[in-house]
C-alpha cells in the first residue's frame, strides 16, 4: 500500500496515533489538505486570520514567538477557533536540542506549548533523545510531532542520508511522530503524513532563500499530503479568496493523484 495512491479515509485505519487519525478525518470530511502558516505578529491579526481561513484549513501553523503581545488570551481564542472550525494547532517550534532541554522548552517558559499545540515540528539532528524528551513532557495529553527531514530553503544541509535516518527515527517512534516536513517523498508508509512548505502561486522565491513550487507540483510531483502556505495567503489582498484558491487546487491535485 503506497501512501500516494491511498485516500485519506483509507489511511485512518493504518495507524493508532490519535492525531494522525484525527487529521485524516478532518481532511476527508472537510475536503481540505491546506495548512495556513499564520506568520503574523499580533494576537489580533492571528485570531482574525484563523477565524477567516478556519473553514478552509485542516491545520493552522504558528510561530508563537513572533507575536508581540502573546498572552493566555491568545491561546484561549486559538483553541476556541480550532474547535469552532475543526482544525488542529501546529506550532512550528523546530525543537532541536537535547531531550532534557526540549522537555522544558515544550512545557515551560512563556509559551507552554504542550498545553495548546496538538502538533509541533522537531529536527531529527540531535538523535531520538529529542523525541523522548518531548514525550516526557506530555503528561497524558494527546500530542504529536512532525519530523523536519528536508527544508524548502536553498542550500539546506539535509542530505539523502539525513532524510533516510529521519524515516528510521519516525518508524521507531510511531506513537509520537505523525509524519514529515519534507520536499520529497521517501517514505511510502501510509501512516506518515507528508507536509510540504514552500508553496506559492506566481512566485519562485522570496529573496531570502525560500523556494516555491505550486500546490499541484507539491502534491503530484513531490508527494505532499498537506501543503503549507504562508504569505501566498496572508499577504494576498483577499486572504479568504486566496485560501479558497489554494484549498481547491490542493484538494483537486490530491484527488487526481489517488485516482491513478
Ligand atoms: N517553513 C518553510 N520551509 C521549511 C520549513 C518550514 O518555509 O522547510 I521545516 C515554514 C516557514 C514559514 C512557512 O512559517 O513554513 C512558509 O511561509 P511562506 O509560505 O510565507 O514562505
TrEMBL record:
Residue positions binding substrate: 39, 61, 152, 200, 210, 230-231
Residues in Orotidine 5'-phosphate decarboxylase domain copies: 33-246
Gene Ontology terms for molecular function: orotate phosphoribosyltransferase activity; orotidine-5'-phosphate decarboxylase activity
Gene Ontology biological-process entries: 'de novo' pyrimidine nucleobase biosynthetic process; 'de novo' UMP biosynthetic process
Active site (record annotation): 92, 94, 97
Pathway noted in the entry: Pyrimidine metabolism; UMP biosynthesis via de novo pathway; UMP from orotate: step 1/2; Pyrimidine metabolism; UMP biosynthesis via de novo pathway; UMP from orotate: step 2/2
EC number: 2.4.2.10, 4.1.1.23
Keywords: Decarboxylase, Glycosyltransferase, Lyase, Multifunctional enzyme, Pyrimidine biosynthesis, Transferase
Homology family: In the N-terminal section; belongs to the purine/pyrimidine phosphoribosyltransferase family.
Name of the protein in question: Uridine 5'-monophosphate synthase
Source species of the chain: Cherax quadricarinatus (Australian red claw crayfish)
Section covered of the full-length record: 232 to 491 of 494
Amino acid at each position: 500500500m503506497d501512501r500516494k495512491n491511498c485516500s485519506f479515509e483509507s489511511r485512518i485505519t493504518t495507524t493508532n496515533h490519535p492525531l494522525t487519525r484525527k487529521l485524516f478525518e478532518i481532511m476527508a470530511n472537510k475536503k481540505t489538505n491546506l495548512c495556513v502558516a499564520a506568520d503574523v505578529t499580533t494576537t489580533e491579526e492571528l485570531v482574525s486570520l484563523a477565524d477567516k481561513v478556519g473553514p478552509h484549513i485542516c491545520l493552522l501553523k504558528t510561530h508563537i514567538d513572533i507575536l508581540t503581545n502573546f498572552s493566555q488570551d491568545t491561546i484561549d481564542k486559538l483553541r476556541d477557533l480550532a474547535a469552532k472550525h475543526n482544525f488542529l494547532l501546529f506550532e512550528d517550534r523546530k525543537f532541536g536540542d537535547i531531550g532534557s532541554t526540549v522537555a522544558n522548552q515544550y512545557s515551560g517558559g512563556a509559551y507552554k506549548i504542550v498545553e495548546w499545540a496538538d502538533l509541533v515540528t522537531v529536527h531529527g539532528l540531535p538523535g531520538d533523545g529529542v523525541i523522548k524528551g518531548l514525550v516526557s513532557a506530555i503528561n497524558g495529553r494527546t500530542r504529536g510531532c512532525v519530523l523536519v527531514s528536508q527544508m524548502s530553503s536553498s542550500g539546506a544541509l539535509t542530505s539523502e542520508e539525513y532524510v533516510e535516518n529521519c524515516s528510521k527515527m519516525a518508524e521507531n517512534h510511531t506513537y509520537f511522530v505523525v509524519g514529515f516536513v519534507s520536499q520529497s517523498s521517501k517514505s511510502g508508509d501510509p501512516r506518515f503524513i507528508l507536509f510540504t512548505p514552500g508553496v506559492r502561486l506566481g512566485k519562485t522565491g522570496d529573496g531570502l532563500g525560500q523556494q516555491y513550487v505550486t500546490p499541484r507540483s507539491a502534491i503530484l510531483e513531490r508527494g505532499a499530503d498537506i501543503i503549507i502556505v504562508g504569505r501566498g495567503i496572508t499577504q494576498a489582498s483577499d486572504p479568504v479568496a486566496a485560501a479558497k484558491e489554494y484549498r481547491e487546487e490542493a484538494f483537486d491535485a490530491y484527488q487526481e493523484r489517488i485516482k491513478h
